[in-house]
Amino acid sequence: MQQSPAPQHGQEGVVPAADAEIRFATLLYRFLFFDWLFADMTKATNLFERRAAWQHNRSMRRHLPLYLRRWSVLTALDFGLGTVFEHSLEIRLVAAWFFTWSCVTLTGMVLAAVLWVLLSNPEMP
To answer: Does some domain include residue 57?
Structure first.
């Protein structure tokens, strides 16, 4: 049986190797944090670039509720694990660690919610 030659880049159904393989750490970062979705408006050199970055950020706000759900699961999980370690297992140091992370994830949720509200406001420039 004769093997067919490898498909060339640009043919239908072929994904370049750089696009197909995303490192797990990068994938995990993109799953948990949303800053990679938004354009940095301070890097804009003129008014047109600034406006384009603002419009891009406003269009990307639609992903923030998904990140809010992810972070609310993390908050509930951290708080629940803190409760289990404190009351059931009576390991106070580990419980304090989970309670601290529940406060950190709650802060991340507040940040995402404020960003979502500000980007949803049509009165902003």
So the answer is: no
